[in-house]
Amino acid sequence: MAKTFVFKFGGASVKDAKSFKNLREILFNRLRNHTVIVVSAMGKTTNALEELLNLKLEDKPIYEKSTKLKHYHLEICRELFLPENLIFPAIENFFSQLDRILEKPLSKENYDEYYDQVVSFGELISSRIVQEYLCAEGIFCLWQDAREIISTDSDYRFAKVKWDKTASQCQKHLMAKLERFPVITQGFIGSDEKGKTTTLGREGSDFTAAIIAHSLHSQSVTIWKDVEGVLNADPKRFPNTVKFEELDYKEAAELTYYGASVIHPKTIKPLANLSIPLFVKSFLNPDGSGTQIHHVDKPNTVPCIVVKDEQVLVSFRVTDFTFINESHIHQVYTEIEKLKLRVNLLQTSAISISIVIDKQLFKMEKLIAVLAKDFDIRYNESLQLITVKNHNRKITEELMSEKEVLLEQVTRTTFQIVVKPLAQ
């Protein structure tokens, strides 16, 4: 099998015409024939598509929002292409398909499946624009529908990969193309056995890059971000951040588990299993060293701070004067698994279980409806979960200063608090 390379470009790297030109410059001197380029939706397109769904749920008009989103894509194309380019009717066709889907009824019951059919258009459109633009600029490449290569189950919005079938399809559909030209495909999306579009979880394009790299036994994966590499904290929230020149797979996986947004949580495992290095580099400074994630013997001791917004703290208190035991935890976790929720923090006391989860539409009310007969349930929304890996007293005291702390948990290496965010 020929040596392949995988590049992934996120939404910020294709948010406007200037960004497309920058992407072309990055690829011009770095592109090999055996390169797969994974592309996210442009700018904040996924957010806009989610807003369309919310309007649809509330039975409000969606035409204005949909038209605005189409014009956003067309305006960028007008800066990049001649008027006769085929990208313009292609975009019109994509939005006609989207409009036809949005004419169908949407409810709480079919929301997840409906979501995947709608939100996937962001990646489909952006990848076509990238392919057309690169070809117009003399960098010839082929377009691949990711739904033909990423095979999943039907767990809509959180689809699980069918690894053997995906590897077979990647080799079948990609290798012959890669012998001739680089290939452009979409992040975040796949398809189930029925051929229906599925998605891999929010911000799942990094994971797509890892899936393809694992399936093709690639030489490396490079994720192009708007930061210099993997930092020990979000530079938008904390001053004086530290960039890691290298990071071990396990350390990177832990940081993503706690919510570090620079890499999708599922990205590390398929790469680590085959010792495929992951490079995180800046599309704003492509010649910078970035961060290499691979096997590193020396443990990291630099404190790392991760903040997760829009968290919900839920407490389940037993109502019959018994103490919390394993059966209570199992009961709560069973319902959480059914609803495809992920627990970011768990704490138990003699009479209650407290969990911290991401806010998700409809999920909270469903969880309460099922468990309310056995527990007294209280919850707080719009919270922050702050995690410090390799903590020290100075950092923890600073983070807790002037904040209302609702929950605190400390281990030898990790410090976590749930707080109400300070008013902006």
UniProtKB/TrEMBL annotation:
Aspartate/glutamate/uridylate kinase domain residues are 3-282
In terms of superkingdom, the source organism counts as Bacteria
Gene Ontology biological process: homoserine biosynthetic process; lysine biosynthetic process via diaminopimelate
- Report the EC code(s) recorded for this entry: 2.7.2.4
The pathway where this protein functions is: Amino-acid biosynthesis; L-threonine biosynthesis; L-threonine from L-aspartate: step 1/5; Amino-acid biosynthesis; L-methionine biosynthesis via de novo pathway; L-homoserine from L-aspartate: step 1/3; Amino-acid biosynthesis; L-lysine biosynthesis via DAP pathway; (S)-tetrahydrodipicolinate from L-aspartate: step 1/4
A Pfam family found in this protein is AA_kinase
Gene3D superfamilies assigned to the protein according to its UniProt record, in alphabetical order: Acetylglutamate kinase-like, Aspartokinase, catalytic domain
The record lists the catalysed reaction(s) as: L-aspartate + ATP = 4-phospho-L-aspartate + ADP
What InterPro entries does this protein's entry cite?
AceGlu_kinase-like_sf, Asp/Glu/Uridylate_kinase, Asp_kinase, AsparK_Bifunc_asparK/hSer_DH
The answer to whether the entry has keyword Amino-acid biosynthesis is yes
Keywords per UniProt:
Amino-acid biosynthesis, ATP-binding, Kinase, Nucleotide-binding, Transferase
List cellular component terms (GO).
Answer: cytosol
Per its record, what are the GO molecular function terms?
A: aspartate kinase activity; ATP binding
**What sort of enzyme, by top EC class, is this?**
transferase
Q: Which family does it belong to?
A: Belongs to the aspartokinase family.
The protein's name: Aspartokinase
Species the sequence originates in: Aquiflexum gelatinilyticum
